[in-house]
Amino acid sequence: MSENTVAVTDQSFETQVLNAEGPVLVDFWAEWCGPCKMIAPALEEIGAEFKGRVTVAKVNIDSNPEAPTKYGVRSIPTLIVFKDGKPVAQQMGAMPKSQLKAWVEKSL
């Protein structure tokens, strides 16, 4: 991914998200998804701005179907904040960076 986001697979989901130190914002996305591509730069910036406070993780639903199925992801992008291994906030669809950032801050 990049220095501010981490790629998570079905195999690494438990370790990287559920057992993570601190909150994790998971972006369920796909390569063909236009709105997913629209919010990617904002998520990258949020990853940098919130470094040390939240981890931004990305799960490609096409190559990793288990996690999205388990958490009821029906449309993408779907963003879920996990704390202590549990989902605590969920947001669907694209939104401007300012709204994304406010949602993340509220979810922490």
From TrEMBL:
Keywords in alphabetical order: Disulfide bond, Electron transport, Redox-active center, Transport
This protein's record includes keyword RNA-binding: no
Site annotation Contributes to redox potential value: residues: 34-35
Site feature Deprotonates C-terminal active site Cys, where: 27
All copies of domain Thioredoxin, residue ranges: 1-108
GO BP term, pick one: cell redox homeostasis
Residue pairs linked by disulfide bridges in the UniProt entry: 33-36
Highest taxon in the source lineage: Bacteria
Keyword Electron transport: yes
GO cellular-component term (any): cytosol
Matches recorded under InterPro entries: Thioredoxin (IPR005746), Thioredoxin-like_sf (IPR036249), Thioredoxin_CS (IPR017937), Thioredoxin_domain (IPR013766)
Family per record: Belongs to the thioredoxin family.
Protein name as it appears in the record: Thioredoxin
Species assigned in the record: Gluconobacter wancherniae NBRC 103581
Lineage of origin: Bacteria, Pseudomonadati, Pseudomonadota, Alphaproteobacteria, Acetobacterales
